[in-house]
Amino acid sequence: MEAVETAELRHFREEVREWLHANKPRETRPEADFAAQRAFDRAWQRTKFDGGWAGIAWPPEYGGRGLSPTQQLIWSEEYAAAHCPPVTDSCWLGQNHAGPTLIHRGDEAQKAFHLPRIQNGEAAWCQGFSEPNAGSDLAGLTTRGEVDGEHLVVNGQKIWTSFGHLCDYQELLIRTGPPGGRHRGLTWVICDMTSPGLTVRPIQALDGLYHNCEVFYDDVRIPLSNVVGEIDQGWSVTMTTFGFERGPATFGLLCKVFIELEDLIAYARAAPPAVGAGLDEDAALTERLGFARAQAQALRALMYQMVSLDIAGEPPGSEGSLMRLAFSEWRQTVTRLGLDLRGAAALSRGQAPATTAEYLESFAETIQGGTAEIQRNIIGERLLGLPR
Ligand SMILES: Cc1cc2nc3c(=O)[nH]c(=O)nc-3n(C[C@H](O)[C@H](O)[C@H](O)COP(=O)(O)OP(=O)(O)OC[C@H]3O[C@@H](n4cnc5c(N)ncnc54)[C@H](O)[C@@H]3O)c2cc1C
Question: Which of 92, 96, 141, 160 has the most ligand 1 atoms within 8 A of CB, as the residue to mutate?
């Protein structure tokens, strides 16, 4: 399956391909050293910025490239095909939803200060929405912000903050209205991660690495000028953020796994496993690979549909949940196939491709950004019209 490409788009694809091959980092992203990881991400973002490839979806008046949805898709396909560094690094969130949220909902001072820093890689952003008792039920969050003069004084705790230990700013959602006010009385505020009273504690994941953090707020003072939108009106700003988080920004990861599957198929053709863990015979392996590729085709069709909706200026609606659900479960299928195919060789650390790391990481896929059960609820209620 291929999207229709005009001569102009083909030329654009060539331009992207050439630039990526000439400029992508030659070394791999460091695994364990936080400072080295941040330095790597910052340098790669700076390279993209200098080359005019930062903020590809951002409007030019904010330093972006203002690419069309089709061009963004081409960028994602070529980025994955060139085996560039992981798309979801410490600069991802600023580029893909904190920055776009500020563009749409921030005031001029917030835009003028933050957008250039996000673009050139100087500032990395994380998201402080989930709490120990408020994940799927985000409106149940209790981290409190009290207005005191020109500041909000914040107390409480967030959890699962991706890259919290590497980031400079956080999109922080707090309760400023009465307790129990659900979606009302929430405020979306920019939090400086170096604020006094703020403590970041990294969490070790299944793969032994640190992707997420707990963040504690003990009388953290945040200037009122950091509120995005209005005090107590943060739910609507959050919906703007989710619109970007669940939209075309996900295509980068999707394209990466398309490539990983094709690499696996090539590997299976070249070197059929002598003893495949969990595989009785090659026919079973062939069937699993074939099924995974059929799923990839369906996901690609869904991705093109989302691009078409985007071109038509229509919101993605429940397609975002269909995509999220199908992708998260399919990624787990592909990473499991990788492990079974490569066998014991996949188990040693530092392997390229990072089969085991990808497999362990894929467990998070059906949790982060809304669990598989929550996506099914959304599809059932909004797409199929089933009762709540
Ligand atoms: C790798 C990773 C990265 C993350 N990054 C961030 C981040 O950067 N910032 C951030 O704010 N958060 C982040 N999260 C948190 C993530 O958004 C939450 O973990 C997720 O929303 C689920 O919330 P929870 O963990 O509280 O689980 P719960 O909401 O407590 O869910 C527990 C179980 O109950 C099920 N369940 C809950 N409600 C329903 C329902 N109504 N119907 C059916 N089943 C239900 C869930 O599906 C799940 O199986 C991340 C999580 C992971 C795993």
Answer: 160
**Residue 217 and residue 154 in contact, taking contact as beta carbons nearer than 8 Å:** yes
Residue pLDDT, tens place only, 138-155: 999 999 999 999 999 999
Query: 135 in ligand 1 pocket by Cβ < 6 Å?
Result: yes
Respond yes or no: is residue 14 known to be catalytic: no
Please say whether the beta carbons of 329 and 305 come within 8 A. no
What is the distance in A from the centroid of ligand 1 to the CA of 150? 34
Are the beta carbons of 102 and 169 closer than 8 angstroms? no
Q: Compute, in angstroms, the gap from residue 371 CA to the centroid of ligand 1.
A: 6
Token look-up 């979801």 returns 88
Whether cis (ω within 30° of 0) applies to the bond prior to 353 is: yes
pLDDT by residue (tens digit) across 21-50? 999 999 999 887 889 999 999 999 999 999
Output the residue whose Cα is nearest ligand 1's atom 51: 368
Residue closest via CA to ligand 1's atom 29 equals: 136
In whole angstroms, what is the distance from residue 299 CA to residue 271 CA?
27
pTM beyond 0.70: the answer is yes
Residue 336 contacts residue 363 (beta carbons within 8 Å): no
Phi first, then psi: give them for residue 247, nearest 5 degrees: -95, -145
Write the CA distances from 120 to 64, 191, 245, 255, 273, integer angstroms. Answer: 11, 20, 20, 24, 45
Atom of ligand 1 nearest to the CA of 132: 26
Catalytic-labelled residue, pool 78, 171, 245, 319: 245
pLDDT in tens, 303-330: 999 899 888 988 767 778 899 999 999 9
Q: Which atom of ligand 1 is nearest to the CA of 128?
A: 11
- Tens digits of per-residue pLDDT, 323-360? 999 999 999 999 999 998 888 878 876 666 778 888 99
Ligand 1 contacts CB of residue 127 (under 6 A): yes
From the CA of 137, give the closest atom in ligand 1.
29
pLDDT value at position 278? 47
Tokens for 304?
A: 């093109």
Separation of alpha carbons 337 and 285, rounded Å: 8
Identify the pLDDT of residue 254: 94
